[in-house]
Amino acid sequence: AAESGAGAGAGRGAPRGRAGGGRGAALRPGRAGQSRAEPGGPEPSRAAPAMQPGASTCPARCPRKRLPQAVIIGVKKGGTRALLEFLRVHPDVRAVGAEPHFFDRNYERGLAWYRDLMPRTLEGQITMEKTPSYFVTKEAPARISSMSKGTKLIVVVRDPVTRAISDYTQTLSKKPDIPTFESLTFKNRTTGLIDTSWSAIQIGIYAKHLENWLLYFPIGQILFVSGERLISDPAGELGRVQDFLGLKRIITDKHFYFNKTKGFPCLKKAEGSSKPHCLGKTKGRTHPDIDQEVVQRLRDFYRPFNMKFYQMTGQDFGWD
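== Sulfotransferase ==
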């Protein structure tokens, strides 16, 4: 499908080639940008306004919808929403607010459908989206590579034990009658066998998921953002992200303030607003108290996977 040009769909609902008025008002472009009347219509007035300078080159310069050059692929409850909201402050980043879920749930709709979800961008701006479930979706790496082998990938990772508890807390807020965290963690509490089929546990085995991505993308094309540092030093992590995306470092310390009530940084000014902006009430929920023995069992379980992940990425995230 051809890329959408500026103004595509602007006149949807009106008959093609009509200017929305009666037959006599319908003009269509002729040669060299001149206007001529539709057959049967009156001759256009000589006083008709001339085309704006440079209008003939508009398709190359006007905003248009493009497939994303960068995708935040994970992880759920790692800090992806915060990263996206922070990045949208940058004038050269345009991103979809909602998660498209194209490469996991909507792939059969096709790339034209996907591109149509994207915001319009100017040449030189970066189009982005974020869907945290991509990181754990087996088919996603091949599908994104098929769209563009040059796509830059960003993964926000967080201590897998804390991430699992946060994941459970989110589910608990929607389904208060679910079993306890402790009972879901183990296949057998007596033997201490962890249930790796539970998605809250499964997502945190980062090394395993990363192996799948490295079949299609070089490690240098994937940036790993620390969810912890995104809270303790948002400007520092955003500096790394801007460098990775080839952007000028515009988002700095001056954009953030720490909200003690919520326990994480907020923007002094959000995109398109002069007011401070914190993430919604669904972020920063209070976690339930979890049996410390269970927490320790999980730490022991994740440790070898974390060590492997540190080796694969060349980064020590300090989770142990």
